[in-house]
Amino acid sequence: MDVEDDTPNFPPLKPSEMTGGVLQNASIPIPRHRLHPLKENWMAIYQPLIEQFKLQIRFNTATRCIELRTSDLTQDIGAIQKATDFIRAFILGFDVQDAIALLRMDDLFIDSFDVEDVKRLQGDHLSRAIGRVAGKDGKTKFTIENATKTRIVLADRRVHILGSFSNIKLARDAVCQLILGSPPGQVYGKLRIVSSRMNERF
């Protein structure tokens, strides 16, 4: 004897229906020093937001803001938040190709801190600390990035790190050790040990 299934079968809600039919908006101010890079990379920023998330996007020249809005075709309810994180990563100084990973992966974050949060420095001491993190021709920064699978931006006194939670912690620890005065060779050695342990674990 067949038993009828009385469980109701509702079609999935569209993002616009979840918000009561109200379109979501976001406005991201662009600093003056990032206007030229934005102009050069506009198509690379514009296309994934239009093609992947079906968002509406424009640059308001009067307010110097990027304005985002969902459309009836937007399927991802988190599209506005992902797009905002992507644009803010670009504003912080990350390359478009690095920042675009925030659109494709859910476990990536950005951690920002000030050099003086680690150690109070002034004048030449501050410049030398930033120089130790960067290294000659950026070698130290690239080494940390490759060992921890992160991307690092040095913006004056601010340090921005893009990556997964565990990888950000590794990169931040390495940067803090350099700021505190540890020799780069010693930091490299610790990074190699930790990264090899992580590779064995996974």
Describe the structure.
Pfam families: KH_KRR1_1st (PF17903), KH_PNO1_2nd (PF22891). Keywords: Nucleus, RNA-binding. Residues 107-180 form the K Homology domain. This protein has 202 residues and is α+β, with helices and mostly antiparallel strands. The protein folds into two domains: 15-104, Ribosomal Protein S8, Chain: A, domain 1 (2-Layer Sandwich); 109-201, 2-Layer Sandwich (Ribosomal Protein S8, Chain: A, domain 1). It contains eleven helices and six strands. The strands form two sheets. A three-stranded antiparallel sheet has the order 1-3-2, covered by helices on one side. A three-stranded antiparallel sheet has the order 4-6-5. β2 and β3 (65-69) form a beta hairpin. α9 (139-148) runs parallel beside α11. The longest helix is centred in the C-terminal third of the chain and has 18 residues, at 184-201. The protein is globular. 23% of the residues are buried.
